[in-house]
Amino acid sequence: MAETGQKFKILIIDDDPDISHLMKLYLSSTGRYKVLLAGGGNIGMWLSSCKWHKPHLILLDIKMPGMDGFQVLKEIRAMPQTRYTPVIMFTAYDDPAFVVKAEGLYCDGYVLKSEGFEVIEAKIQEVLKKRGLL
After folding, report:
1. pLDDT of res. 15
2. How many Å apart are CA 100 and CA 81, to the nearest integer?
């Protein structure tokens, strides 16, 4: 749980730097979050970022080069340091099969990038509350 006055650390894992930076700017502007970015196509870097930064929540894209978000989520759940870290799939894919697959991998939420910053932040708040972090 974040201490009083402490910002929640959100790690965004997405290979699209434009979307990642816009999401970071929005979330940071609320004053509630410290946002960290892990982009590119290097699974080792993504997983190291998860272990090193110990985020309160991870926003994870699905379609990425090298290893898709579902594979990354499996790895996150397999590591003791991140096994219980809340993960929200943050994607452009409005596919019910993807939602079911994400839930089967113990994803905490599924939000479309096109839904807008306010909806995405509301999902973050919902997950943090549900997990007892807020």
Report:
1. 85
2. 25
How many angstroms separate the CA atoms of 105 and 68, rounded?
13
pLDDT per position as a tens digit, 65-101: 777 889 989 988 998 888 899 999 999 989 999 999 9
pTM for the full predicted model: 0.89
Q: Is residue 82 part of a domain?
A: yes
Residues 59-74, buried b or exposed e (16+ Cβ, 10 A)?
A: bbbbebeebebbebbe
Count of domains forming the chain: 1
Interatomic CA distance for residues 117 and 71, integer angstroms: 25
Q: Is residue 2 part of a domain?
A: no
- Strand-strand pairing, 33-38 and 8-13: parallel
CATH number at residue 85: 3.40.50.2300
Which range of residues forms the domain containing residue 82? 8-130
The reply to whether 58 falls in a domain is: yes
For residue 47, pLDDT over 80 is answered with no
C-alpha span between 73 and 12 (Å, rounded): 13
**Is pLDDT above 90 for 112?**
yes
